[in-house]
Amino acid sequence: MSQTITPPTSxxxxxxxxxxxxxxxxxxxxxxxGQCSDAERRAAVEAMADALDxxxxxxxxxxxxxxxxxxxxxxxxxxxxxxKLDGAKLAGAITGVRQVAALxxxxxxxxxxxxxxxxxxxxxxxxxxxxxxxxxxxxxxAVMQIASLAIRxxxxxxxxxxxxxxxxxxxxxxxxxxxxxxxxxxxGALELLTSRQESLxxxxxxxxxxxxxxxxxxxxxxxxxDNTRIPVLGHADGICHLVVDRAADLALALRIALDSKTQxxxxxxxxxxxxxxxxxxxxxxxxxxxxxxxxGVELRGDAAACALxxxxxxxxxxxxxxxxxxxxxxxxxxxxxAALEHIRRHGxxxxxxxxxxxxxxxxxFLRAVDSAGVFLNCSTRFADGNRYGFxxxxxxxxxxxxxxxxxxxxxxxxxxxxxxxxxxxxxxYADGTRSFSHRPLPL
Amino acid sequence: MSQTITPPTSxxxxxxxxxxxxxxxxxxxxxxxGQCSDAERRAAVEAMADALDxxxxxxxxxxxxxxxxxxxxxxxxxxxxxxKLDGAKLAGAITGVRQVAALxxxxxxxxxxxxxxxxxxxxxxxxxxxxxxxxxxxxxxAVMQIASLAIRxxxxxxxxxxxxxxxxxxxxxxxxxxxxxxxxxxxGALELLTSRQESLxxxxxxxxxxxxxxxxxxxxxxxxxDNTRIPVLGHADGICHLVVDRAADLALALRIALDSKTQxxxxxxxxxxxxxxxxxxxxxxxxxxxxxxxxGVELRGDAAACALxxxxxxxxxxxxxxxxxxxxxxxxxxxxxAALEHIRRHGxxxxxxxxxxxxxxxxxFLRAVDSAGVFLNCSTRFADGNRYGFxxxxxxxxxxxxxxxxxxxxxxxxxxxxxxxxxxxxxxYADGTRSFSHRPLPL
Lengths: 443, 443
What we know:
By secondary structure, chain A is of the alpha/beta class.
């Protein structure tokens, strides 16, 4: 199996020498940043916030230039809304940067401490990842957030904003670097990439970039996942389900169904499909149809749901569609097992919930559904780093391996084993001269 | 960036429908296995060991058939040695399976427990990954080890042995499945793939396989890493360094240098390069040259090392070569920073060590070297899951993200968030009706 083959990512061009050089410079700066103390990194993030404050007028002006270009190009209104910064939104983002400064340090935590033998002591310590590659669509506020999370956790970052936000991003990153100038953190730890060629090249910077964080559409995330060997923190789809079990409390089920769909329909943790047990479907839908209609939600049903009053038919592909809108599929299932099978087939392993008063159904659901979040009698909208109490959210991952689900600052660190000895050699343990104690020491 | 493009792994053929079906069957079996209790999984692994015991004669006979074919084909002696099972080696492997049965359960551990609000409680629980794809070269004993680790941790496995071990693997997997038949674990959780086509198809089973574990040559690992989107647990290179600092204890430095190179030269955690501070190089090499010669180690030096008596010149590429043999590069460095820079350029972020009595040098080295293992005054050969006290080693990862370094059973589990409420909805927290407590609860 070791014949020479075309590398998998050959569809993406090799990074040019200039990009390699810039990335190597960020990596060197990140190594210096990684040696900074908690207090130094905290102060650096505070300095970034101060610099953003000082540059507010300049940033808002740059944003107006982006908005003018967007208007001239007829950018979609949803994108324009994300692109737009005003004084309040900018001030909110700067407050967010200060909140990141105040977060507990994720670096230098001892996760394991073992005496392997007398005088031979092993530790596992959390350390920064190195360099993050962050690719945004629109959303200049996200640049401030991610840059501050990166510096707080000791990581450098290559930041690639969307073309539509190029003036805003340039002004923001210039301010952030000015802020770092007076701090212990080298300003070169943050670098802005501007061209599409550079953002494609970023995907090929294995060995220089440790984690890619995409912030944008599902299509952007999928493209990135398909075109890089670097680990990607994110998720393409968020097809979440709510199961209304035979033994559900009707009012409770309807309450969480409405919240899960309507509280913020564009969110990845909003539900796309209701799976209703056939025994409760007539009663549930009798109450649910008017409630969803009142909330402006368009329902699309399978045959059984349509027979119970859902007006539109769920077309082919409906069960695999993330609407990100006030549209909801409704399927009547024979039993809980059929609901589980539907989730296995159509879910994206993001977050799935059940409404039930039956402990056996609850237990079966919570054990059998293989999603990052499995919820009982509450809204799927709670699947969020801030709501989970992480203080910040770097992203939500639907991959199997950790970090999984909503990821806080801990997603930006890894660990390293440190072993200190006094001349210990392995041969002594192989021939029985010495033996391991493997004695746990206090963390 | 969302145009349609060729998928990255198009060089590897799409898995055929039959393989997809078999993999889906393993996944279903793995989901059932994932619901088994600790005691059931432990008993299942014991039953696997019993079945191997009962099938010993049959397995050894199958292995003799493989050896005869290998002899006819003129297989390299090193591969034949790995391929060969005898009664003692098989008995040792079966004892290994029983040891895996006895390991502490990695599943169902509560890693986080938080009250988000009254009646709304979040848990993070360790759960099996799902299905492992394991690709071996030769080494039928590794099949027994990995299969038992998979079942112990609640994971199904698609096992692909090397062609040269096909009879041995078939006999082993048949025995393992017979063992599972009397247990709570469905025998279909283990499945043997036999053709090269199937092992290429395995690399494309995203969504059905959660982790690929390659057990073989660096070339095999690199091929797999380059041709799959599924996470790979492993490492291609193991280029490890020992720095002999200006302030090293000469006898101690020589002792750990010899052990790091010679205790098992083919291991990935053996050193390939010595970096010797110029101030200590004359004294160190005066003692080291005869010691390495006596140990049968061939030294290859840079100009300065050759001037101090190293006879062979390190040719181009020497610093990037994993010899896996009794060959060692020697470079004289100006200072510690030059050694760190050499490791940054040529290391594979596996394990690097320093011999020094100077606390400042030790601290600088342990903080600045970005490898999975950073060691002080001890042999690099300690970088091993068993020596670290993990009870078993699934593999050693040189990737940045966790799991990193030697990985025990914990590398075969992930986690899931479980949230239980009483009708809680997100809207109540958005509008201030309720607020989060984020109160830590006992684990």
